[in-house]
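Anyone? Bumping this.
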Amino acid sequence: MELIKKYPKLFQWLFLLIVFFALCFAIDVPETYKFIRGQAEFVKDPNQSSYIFLGKEVRYYAFDVFWRLPPLLGWLPIWINDSLFFLMNEWMPMEFWNEDTQEFKTRPLLLQISRNLTSFMTFLIELIREILLGGLETIVAFTSWDWIDKNPWAELPGLPWTIVAAGAAILSYKLSGKGLALFAGLTMIYISIFGQWKPSMQTLSFILVAAPLSFIFGLGLGIAAFKSKRVEKALYPILLVMQTMPQYAVLVPALVLFGVGDHAAVIITMVVAVPPMILLTILGLRAIPPEVIEAGRMSGCNNWQLMLKVLIPTARRDILIGVNQVIMVCFSMAVISAFIGAKGLGFNLLLALNQLNIGLALEAGLCISLIAILLDKMSLAWANKQTDYFGNLTFLQRNKNILFFASTVAIGIILAYVGTFLFKDTFNYLFEVPHNKGLSTADFWNKGVDWIFDTFFVYIKAFNTWLIQDVLQPMRALYLRMPAIATLVLVVGSGYLIGGVRSALVVCALTLFIALSPWWDRALVTAYMATFGVVISCIIGFTVGTLCFQNKHSTSFMLGVCDIFQTFPSFVYLIPVMMLFGITDTSVLIAVIVYATIPATRYTIEGLRSVPTGLHDAATMSGVNKFQRLTKIEFPLAFPHMMLGLNQTIVFALFMVIIGAFIGTEDLGQYILKALSDKNGAGIGLTLGICVAFIGLIFDNLIRTWVGQRKKHLGID
Amino acid sequence: MSEPIIKCESVYKIFGENAKKMLDDSNGNVDAKTFQENGCIVGVNNASFEVSKGEMLVVMGLSGSGKSTLLRCISRLTDATGGKIFIEGQDLLQLNNKELINLRRNKMGMVFQSFALLPHKTVVENIAFPLQIKGIKTEDSISKAMDMVKLVGLDGRENYFPRELSGGQQQRVGIARSLAVEPDIWFLDEPFSALDPLIRKEMQDEFLRLQEKLQKTIMFITHDFDEALKLADRIAIMKDGIIEQLDTPANIVLNPATEYVRKFTEEVPREKVLLIEDVMDTSTKDNLGDLKVLKDEIIENVAEKILTQEKSVTVVDSNNKVVGSINPTKIINTVFGGRKNNN
């Protein structure tokens, strides 16, 4: 009895676990139960039960309700689909003026909006793309095809790669200095020489549209939410779901609304990139000391000046993290949106992965990563730039960068012109190195992969078999063996023990949504893969983080490594693992582990670093040794922050598990991927996405509640 | 005396949802307790005073006394719940947004306790900020800001960022920024509270030097009674939103109006605060000794001389005209005696 009084929480948890296991053992697996492979739900089967709701028929295999709940939400995806279709094709028909045919035409409102948005985005992308690569579309947009036919000279010539490379270097130099200039120059030269110029510029033009638009929208909405409580309240739930929604899932509805192509990719990228920007903007603006705002007011700022000159620059740190996130998301989407027809490096990467041409995939992936790092650094340098008011500069000094650029343009054009004579019979390498005509290391990598495979095949295979047969399969079976009711009790019970009734209700609602959807089994598979990834990632991340923290240099080194790894688009992680493990669950899981270890490590280091130095000194004076200090002082205090890292780790792991569908998994992600090629996929894709988001949100809610209480308890903020 | 620069008439600031209504219902009888029971917090309670041109009014009070709130009402960073505030005869609460911005751009400067510098701007950019907001050309504003940098003695550090400066230096930037538009009215909200004692003293001296030169109309907020005594022309002592006493430093020390004020004055070394003029006897002008002292002297500086005399000492003004006398025993009484039953 006394023990119970002393550790009440512990016994409550024990009781919960006992109930959970009791339920697991009490409820038998129904004899008819089997994990449904493929899309069997769409197959008619006399064993299926069915019901009709809102005029939609939902078919499913019925089990004991304790074992699996019936898919009472099965109508939702169909309903979403029909609604979308109705909105797009029938809702609010209106008269619109058609420029081409010179007459009014009746069209549904949403379709018209979508078409206008589409043509606007297409124009922006084409404009940048044709400045870089040359083409007709931009001029056509201002005139007409007839006019072009009559004036064959009217074509944007595109810039020779030499000019773009020099321009990038000069801009980097102006923004930051020699180091970045060198990096920019080398990146561009690498891209060109290895024949990735065209796809790279296509990707770049996509990013140069998507990133600034996302930034502007995110900042604007963030400011609106900061100014008005009502806007914030309306935005918050959407932001939460979007934060944990896998990027794949948004693709499908976008396909329906905006069709296939770069413009749809830009819009989708904005949908994904804007939420973190909003959140970070709000966070930054909130953190501004009130006196700074008052100082701005007393300096006579009007509202605009206050916002632009005081608030935003003061919140710069968080807003910059937002920009960084936007760029990251944009690059990751640049690859993923190749699924809906975006051109560029992403498309090449997917193609190469599909053909298992690891070498080519590696080159494309490297290009994306390099451009990502370059843009990230440039945006950072731009925000940190300061003006010199006192230098007494001559005209030449002041405008040296512009003059220098002008001269490189001239030189570049001359070189390109000379090139036309030099390379009369082949391609003009001084203008543009065509795709696949540059150097390539693909063969080298492919041979390397082959060699590794030949040499270590036995070991890799043995490891692979062991992992799959002895670890993954049993684990998967265990997860699938959980009766729905037991899972529900466990999750809701945890919610109650951590955050009281409120938390219990929230997680109950989230879990029920998944349980009542037709994909509970798939969700369990997703959960099992994510769990495996998260556990290993956390072990690695916490260990590496703790070890690196022992030394100042290794700390900053590790944070730098995390920064760079975080800039890689998520798809890139699939390349090396496919190289080694081929198309297996092992590949996916290793990619998950690598990807999810980043936040685990980062948050461990940051958590340990956030322990106040005063406490270190106090501990040292109490005579603790290094190990005691770690276990008695640093871990307890850093733990809340590390738990936030766990939260991020879960989100990252879920994302990667879903992307892993590309390699071939049997979880929710696989269905999302399938929904992409399904005519009626929009509703399915969206619902699946929400399911994945909800898995993330269950943990998010539990962890955040716990961290909040713990921080209050420890008196840290 | 001409029109006061700042004039407050029964200013109230009450926080809470129904503040305005409750104030109207109370007929000017605001009781903090009843208001608190109804979910309102009284910040400033019936403040009336004037500040004339070139005068320095120091508002002294402990934290939560409403002194900063009062200042924010007068600078209209918050809107007063009731009462009237006049700045150079203009009704502050009636100004529209544009007029208010104009007033701030040309007439007001403010210094903050936490410096409130813009972290992304250098020293000179911070100082030039109010000028640039006004729409002055970059070159002109920077050169004007450079004058200010020199004024507060930060030459050579104009390209530093605030984070690279010490607290004292940061506050110099804050002071320079508030003076850049050459305002007539200068608000200082606990400007030296965040500084070390030694730096604080240095900054106070510097501040007095600047004021000597600039002769601004000043409202200075502090929680440090010694600072108030050192700087003020007049002191307003606040408690729970009410101005307990508003008077010259000498009168506050000699005649504290309430028990609360008296507690502050108890520990004050009077010989350092009071002038001969404050304690001299104006009725007796005959039968005096040879020693003459100026009426503006601080007692501490002349006490030793006076105490060597047996007779009363002649007090003269700057024109060497006899204005009164002072007896050595009076000095002894002032410095050592009669604190508990001063009134």
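Late reply, but here is one note on the structure posted above: Chain A touches chain B through 22 residues (CB under 8 Å).
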